[in-house]
Write a structure and sequence with these properties.
five-stranded parallel β-sheet; 2 domains; Rossmann fold; four-stranded parallel β-sheet; 13 helices; single chain
């Protein structure tokens, strides 16, 4: 009897040991944890690590632990390229999440078809998924939908003349192309088209030209810190022309940088930053409030839609692994493309072979900054 009991115990210990020693499923990430884009990348890193820990606490994926191999590209395109190559060639990951910025994603994305490893970008530029690259997906809502939401609001306000001010990086260039297409297509006159550099610290010259063009509204397209400079310079010039910002500034950091100059500015943003204001019938509300609470408890800071991109990226890859029953890159790719009605932080995702973003304009809510906080724009 004792011999039999010892055999059972030995078998259990062996099984437990085999489970603990199971080969991990390796998922890579390229994130701008430091550098100018760190306000985007830090919440992404935090969220990716939080979800990894959550998955492993529940037994991992397919009974195997999840190993997140995350590299900081320091907001540098060249370092993003090196990180992507390392993940593909040295680490041999099953999938990659990243990069943080559109410029870095555009620089690395063409490496993934050759390697036959799926990439899930956290960046917004439409060019990432249009035209469709079989191995590249993205979770950030597209520029086209953001521009559409802004222009529909401008139409409702009766505006006719629009001026644009865009940053000269990958995100700004992609947004500028869509703006130049949709502004006239939706019946507006484009009265001025100005550009600024990502490191510029004064936009007075550009804003003066926009003011002289006498638009009904101005759309600024960029990510911090440039848009905050635009907001402050606009206030210094005493300009009252309504100013729309892009979804690239939908974080508390923008309000901190712009200060009182942020008051009254409008932009399209994910539902996360106004989750408590959403009706109970909104399909993401419960998830958004849960993520907000989980993030605040763990990191003692505010959530942002950018951290939400990290949630969506890793959760979607995890869903694909479970659906495929495999960590083979090709199986993950195939499973990603078939995910439908998946509630995430950025929206409800439904991918197809013709749509590797899986979101529409409903991913955005028009918001206004009032009293130093976000309010749904009625």
């Amino acid at each position: 009897m004792m011999l039999r009991l010892l055999s059972v115990v030995a078998a259990l210990v062996l099984c437990a040991g085999q489970s603990l020693a199971a080969e991990p499923i390796k998922i890579g990430a390229v994130v701008s944890v430091t550098g100018p884009a760190s306000f985007l990348g830090e919440p992404e890193k935090n969220t990716l690590e939080m979800i990894r820990d959550e998955l492993n606490a529940k037994g991992g994926l397919l009974g195997r632990p999840v190993e997140l191999i995350l590299y900081d590209d320091e907001s540098d395109v060249n370092k993003a390229v090196l990180a992507a190559e390392k993940l593909i060639k040295k680490d041999q990951v099953a999938a990659v999440i990243g990069a943080t910025t559109s410029g870095s994603t555009l620089a690395i994305m063409n490496k993934f078809p050759a390697a036959q490893v799926p990439l899930v970008s956290m960046s917004a530029a439409e060019k990432i998924v249009n035209p469709v690259n079989p191995w590249v997906f993205k979770v950030a809502p597209s520029d086209r939908h953001a521009v559409g939401r802004i222009l529909k609001h401008a139409q409702a306000k009766g505006y006719k003349k629009i001026a644009i001010l865009t940053v000269s990086d990958g995100f700004g260039q992609a947004g500028r192309e869509v703006l130049k297409e949709l502004v006239p297509a939706m019946g507006f006159t484009l009265t001025a088209d100005e550009v600024y550099g990502p490191k510029d610290t004064d936009m007075t010259a550009q804003l003066t030209k926009l003011k002289d063009a006498a638009p009904d509204a101005i759309i600024c397209w960029g990510t911090n810190p440039g848009p905050a400079v635009v907001a402050r310079n606009r206030a210094q010039l005493g300009m009252k022309t309504p100013l729309y910002m892009s979804h690239g500034v939908a974080s508390r950091k923008f309000i901190e940088l712009a200060g009182e100059s942020a008051e009254g500015l409008m932009l399209p943003a994910g539902h996360l930053i106004v989750a408590s204001q959403l009706p109970d019938s909104q399909p993401q509300k419960v998830l958004l409030l849960a993520y907000t609470s989980q993030y605040k408890d763990k990191f003692k800071g505010d959530v942002s839609p950018f951290g939400g991109h990290g949630w969506d990226g890793l959760k979607l890859v995890a869903k694909a692994v479970e659906t495929a029953g495999s960590d083979k890159p090709a199986a993950i790719r195939d499973a990603l493309e078939k995910i439908t009605a998946f509630p995430g932080i950025g929206g409800v995702f439904s991918f197809t072979d013709k749509d590797h973003n899986g979101l529409d304009a409903n991913a955005f809510e028009m918001v206004v900054i009032q009293g130093g906080d976000w309010k749904i724009l009625k």
